[in-house]
Structure formats: C-alpha cells, structure tokens
Amino acid sequence: MSYPVLRNKTYFIRTFGCQMNLHDAERVSGLLDSCGCLEVASPEEADIVVFMTCCVREAADQRLYGQCSSCKSLPAPPSGKRVIAVGGCIAQRDGEGLLTNLDNVRVIFGTSSIAHVAELLAQAFEDDERHVLTAEIDEPGATSMPWHRATSYHAWVPIMTGCNNFCSYCIVPYVRGREKSRPFEEIVDEVCGLARAGVREVTLLGQNVNSYGRDSYGSPRFAELLRAVGETGIERIRFTSSHPKDLLPETIDALAEVPQVMPHLHLAVQSGSSRILKLMNRRYSREDYLDLVRRVRERIPDIALTTDIIVGFPGETEEDFEQTLSLAEEARFAQAFTFIYSKRAGTPAAEMPDDTPHEVIQERFDRLVHVIEQTAYDFNQHDLGARVPVLVEGVSKKDARRIQGKSPKNQTVHAPVPEGIDPADLVGRIVDVDVDTARTWYLAGSIVGEAR
After folding, report:
1. What is the reported pTM?
2. Separation between Cα atoms, residue 41 and residue 108, nearest integer Å
3. DSSP 150
4. Cα–Cα distance for residue pair 412/390, rounded to 1 Å
C-alpha cells in the first residue's frame, strides 16, 4: 500500500537491546524505504524518529524516557513536523501506558505489529492524533517485510519468534509471545538468496534456537536446519540464543561437522548454583551445564564458549555466588556478558524477597568480571602465532589505517592495512591475519596474502 504523505520524509532509527531488535529495525527501515522515505544520520535531520526498545533491564526504560525527552529540544525537521514512534518490547509491554509519560510520542507499535508501522506513521502525519497497535496479529509480519540491511556482507535471519521457557526473571515471553517457528524451506530459501546476493555470513536468530521446529513439526529440527543452511553457499553461519536444556547431541554433531558453522557457541548459564538455577526456572543443574560443556568440547576442542551470567538474583548467597565463580573458572569462557539482576515487573522473580545490599552485589560482580577477564585472556593465547581468517567489518575507531573484523571464534581482530590498499575496499572481505598479539578482548597481527 502507498502512503503519499510519507514520500520524501526523512527518518532515523535508534535501536536498544538484542539482535532480534536489530533485525526488526532493519525491517522497519526497509518498509520506510519502500514508502519513499530517506534515512538520515541523526534525529535532528529526521521527520520520523523511531525508537526500537528493549525491556530486559530497567535502565532501558530510563534511556527511552531520556531520548524521547531530548527530542523536544530538537530543531524543526525538514518537513516542519516530526513524528516520534516507539516500537519493540517496551512498546509491547506498556502499550498505551507509555503515552502517559511520553507526551511527544505519536505512534506505539508492538513486536508483532511492525508490518503496520507505515500505516500508523501516515495516520499520525495526517491527523496529529496518537496511534497505538500492540495486539498480537496472526499474519506473516516482519519476515515478509522489505529489508534494509546495515551491511552487505552480514544478515540476521530470524528462524523463530517468541519463547516458551518463562525463566522467572525474564519478561521476553510476555512481550514476544510463544514460540513460533518459520517454515524450514522458507529459511533455507532466504539464505540461498542472501548467498546469491553476496552475503558472506548469516546469524540465525531465535530466543531459543535449539527448540526450533518443535511447535510446527512436533520435535526440534535445528540440527537439520544447520546442515541445510550449510549447503546454501553461505560461507559463515552463526546463531543465537541457545538454551542449555535443549542443546541436543545432534546439534552438537552439526556444530562439529558443518564447516560453515563457526566454532563459537553462546550458551547462557546465568548462575553456577543449582539452587539459584531452580529459582530461575532454568530447568538444568550446575552439573548438567558442565557436562554439556564437556560433551561440546569433546567434539569441538577449540570452540569459543561464551555465556550470560546474572549476579545478585534474589536470595543469592555468598555460597551461591562462589559456585558461579568456580563454574566460570571450570568452563573457561572466552567471553561472558555479566549483568547485575534487574527487577522486571510482571515476572515471578520480581515478587521474591531481595535484601542483599547493593554494595555486596557490586563487589561480587567485580570479582566475577576479574575471573572472566582471566579466562578470556587465557583463551585468546591459544591463537597467538596462528593464522586466522578474518571477516573485515570496518576500520579501528582509533586508527583509520587498521582494519577490525571477526575471527571464526567471534574474536575481534585488528591489523594494519598494507600500503597501497584502501581500507574501505577490504570491508566485507576475508583476510588472513598472522596473530602476534593476544589480549583479553582482541587479537592483533599482520595481513598476509590477498583478500578474498
């Protein structure tokens, strides 16, 4: 459908949160492009400002309120009228309630209604009213929308939406709905098209990719999907997120046997205490997780294992935390995303007694970060002296003559650009780097041979 009022309007999208939100933002951008809108680099230049929000942590709400408030002081936009829209998980959770605190917002759209963004924006420009759509709509939605990818060499490919796990601290099942898998053949066809278009790497997305297909086919088909995607011609395959309770032996086999699947597994543990894991409703124990790590490493010895860990979950004792520390040391994580527990209204954990002083939680958090820094440093030492194929993502923020990219294990790699080569010409290509420096959060070395 055409919306003449949107033609030549400028737009800016700011995204908070997870990779699924990044992909949703690309779809919104693609939809606006198809309506004749023009993307700009800042809110100051935009007739349309879209915030794609995340509600996993409390700070996200405050960021949204601050960003929307700052829009009140922006200069007049090119068209003379600016429409501010809020989408994503906060929009889905709060809906019309957001309008109470955000008086300059004109459009609210939920996680399953992003296909209607253009319609809502057009209405807001025409009548200056406030338009809200957060109902769960049974239609193809985001995956069938136009797509404006942030890069030409990488693509997010959602394979499912929603989550059935209901971890006690997590709001996601309430704002993303139940698990719903895309058709197997549709995903494979999409990746085939991306490979033909020159995309080098895809990341398969889902709140729990390991359970892909259970709702549609009666049992998980993720391992089968990895093998099929590996035959599409795409060079690199990654995926996230992966729940430990559903990581099946056949998926580990696919990880080990499909060369296009990168040797990196993000496996969120959240806590090293079986008691806390039970309170979190994670449905595995400390022993289960460590056994899984052992089985993965038996099949893929050099795999980069990364994780998420929450510190300060309600009721966490020093003994519980010590178990988290020891698990981190034993699992030897290549990287970990560490968070201090943030209460989310509407989740079971929000009702649990929580009397641990913040300074105690902060001290535990600092101790955990120290352990992760050590295991990350130790992991990177294995690649010192190695030749690593690097997919170039851009140049270093500190030096425009140094490329920055990712190794198969998802390590950040830096290297100076050889004389006579324009760094921009290397973006999206793969170069071999001889690693002579291995630090905690990156590798560095020299480019050898020709880019490909």
Report:
1. 0.84
2. 22
3. S
4. 9
- Nearest CA-CA partner of 378 in 440, 434, 327: 440
> Which residue is listed with tokens 């830096």?
414
Residue owning tokens 């966490």: 316
Q: Is residue 209 within 8 Å of 242, Cβ to Cβ?
A: yes
C-alpha dihedral, 319 to 322 to 323 to 324, nearest 10° = 130
pLDDT of the residue at 177 = 86
Q: Which two tokens stand for residue 153?
A: 């060499």
User: In whole angstroms, what is the distance from residue 24 CA to residue 40 CA?
Assistant: 18
Determine the pLDDT at residue 57. Answer: 67
Q: What is the dihedral of CA 104, 110, 116, 120, to 10 degrees?
A: -20
Q: How far apart are CA 211 and CA 163, in angstroms?
A: 9
> What single DSSP character describes residue 124?
H
- Spatial distance between the Cα atoms of 134 and 124, rounded to a whole number of angstroms: 16
- DSSP helix/strand/coil, 5: helix
Q: Which residues pair with 378 in a beta bridge?
A: none
Look-up of token digits 């033609």: 7
Weakly modelled stretches of the chain, pLDDT under 50: none
Q: What is the pLDDT of residue 17?
A: 75
Per-residue pLDDT at 345: 83
Query: Cis omega before residue 241 (within 30°)?
Result: yes
**What is the DSSP pairing of strand 201-205 with strand 236-240?**
parallel
Q: What is the pLDDT of residue 353?
A: 92
In this prediction, residue 415 carries a pLDDT of 97
Please give the single-letter amino acid code of residue 426.
L
Confidence (pLDDT) at 326: 98
* Spatial separation of the C-alpha atoms in residues 246 and 290, rounded to whole Å: 14
